[in-house]
Amino acid sequence: MRLDDPWDEAPAVGTGEPDGAGALGPDGRSGPSERRGHSAAEIYLEVQSSPAFREVRRRYRRFVIPGAAAFLLWYLAYVVAATTAHDLMAHPVVGTVNVAMVAGLGQFLTTFLLTWAYTRHARLHRDRVALELRWETQEMTRGAGR
Known about the structure:
Elements: H1 40-48, H2 51-84, H3 86-90, E1 92-94, E2 97-98, H4 99-125, H5 127-141
Helix pairs in contact: 1-5, 2-4
């Protein structure tokens, strides 16, 4: 696993060689001379069709689609209950705090919990593979025609 940042080695725009051509890679070798025939668009299409990219997208969809659906259902249930079940929502829970207030605060809580769960899922299941794809793409496009 690489710990250094691939973008740290790239020269700033307007410095060094144009488009990174002839630049030395982090390992000291010259740029991808074997890739000079490929454009950046071709390289990105190749990465997009790779099994690793498809796996990252699959893992993303497996979390986001059910999470978004559950949150939308919870939100719609709250709105429908607030507009149609006045007696239920006005029922006191503790003192002057009623069911509507608890459910409304629950909306905020579930937003934060869903955000936490998403970032944890990304860190544990997608970030490492995505970083490897980023490395490969950066190495492949170094010196490629734009």
